Amino acid sequence: MSEILGKIATNLYNGDDGSVAGLVQQALDQGLSPSEVLEGGLIAGMDEVGKDFKAGDLFVPEVLIAARAMHAGMSVLRPLLAEGDVPSAGKYVIGTVKGDLHDIGKNLVKMMLEGAGFETVDLGTDVKPETYVAAVQEHQPQLLGLSALLTTTMPGMKATIEALQEAGLRDTVKIMVGGAPVTAAFAEKIGADAYAPDAASAVDTARELVA
Ligand code: B1M
């Protein structure tokens, strides 16, 4: 890995958002392509964050700070990537289910996915089944993520899958569920394609699902 890419990855990992955008610009000025900077710098750094978060060596605040540094770097790369140099890892629509206002975990999942090169559409919180259906129709994502933090809102996941079935869209999208009270057994029971216990696993699982 070139020295500048290693520096971007390290500074992103350390959450140094003041330096990351400048380093990304320097890397571009040295002749690296936007995709090389994205993959070898930003995504490489975020992958390390994901690994250490999964291992319990990093905690939520550190991940959020790293995600802020990722965003700083992306602000330089985004217009160049939009010109078509880099294919997206996949399109991922995500939201917290109906009746549920918890969004910290969902936002973390979204940020980690963006860090891994996924294009995300965030529907926010308290998302009704029909809103997910409309979003799948509009955005045609490969992946749909449902988050729930309350045992009382978990049935909204099943209702969403049923609404997609009724709309004839169930087979067009892979559905991932997560959130503190959600389990792999619950995911299987309601007919979801996957369950992820945390944001780093959500990235690994998303990669597997689109592979
Ligand atoms: Co609420 N709350 N809350 N709350 N709250 C819990 C969830 C609770 C466990 C607290 C408790 O009683 N011990 C409890 C739920 C009990 C239950 O259902 N069994 C609870 C309750 C009861 C409530 C209210 C009903 C309280 C009340 O008003 N009486 C109310 C409900 C409001 C509503 O949603 N309609 C309520 C309100 C709130 C606040 C608004 C005050 C606030 C939310 C702020 C916000 O999100 N913007 C809040 C908070 C902060 C919490 C706790 C303290 C923390 C949740 C959190 O953000 N964790 C929580 C107790 C706790 O967990 N210690 C609690 C950090 C976050 C990073 O973790 O969300 O689990 P988490 O996300 C993880 C994984 O789960 C996973 O990845 C994330 C990162 O690793 N993940 C996914 C999440 N979504 C995923 C999706 C995926 C894959 C992985 O794929 C799509």
Tell me about this structure.
With 211 residues, the protein is an alpha/beta fold. The chain has nine helices and five strands, in the order ααααβαβαβαβαβα. The protein has helices at 3-13, 17-29, 34-54, 60-85, 104-115, 129-139, 155-166, 184-190, 199-210; strands at 91-96, 119-122, 143-147, 174-178, 194-195. It has a five-stranded parallel beta sheet with strand order 2-1-3-4-5, sandwiched between helices. α5 (104-115) crosses α9 (199-210). The mean pLDDT is 93.
Q: What topology does this entry show?
A:
Elements: H1 3-13, H2 17-29, H3 34-54, H4 60-85, E1 91-96, H5 104-115, E2 119-122, H6 129-139, E3 143-147, H7 155-166, E4 174-178, H8 184-190, E5 194-195, H9 199-210
Parallel strand pairs: 1-2, 1-3, 3-4, 4-5
Helix pairs in contact: 1-2, 1-3, 2-4, 3-4, 3-9, 4-5, 5-9, 6-7
Bound molecules: CO-5-methoxybenzimidazolylcobamide (B1M).
Largest sheet, if any? 5 strands, parallel
Measured between the Cα atoms of the first and last residue, the distance is 25 Å
Strand order of the largest sheet: 2-1-3-4-5
Bound molecules: CO-5-methoxybenzimidazolylcobamide
Assign a percent range to the helix content.
Answer: 55-70%
- Low-confidence parts: none
Number of strands: 5
* CATH top-level class of the largest domain: Alpha Beta
Q: Give the strand content.
A: 5-15%
- How many separate domains make up the residues? 2
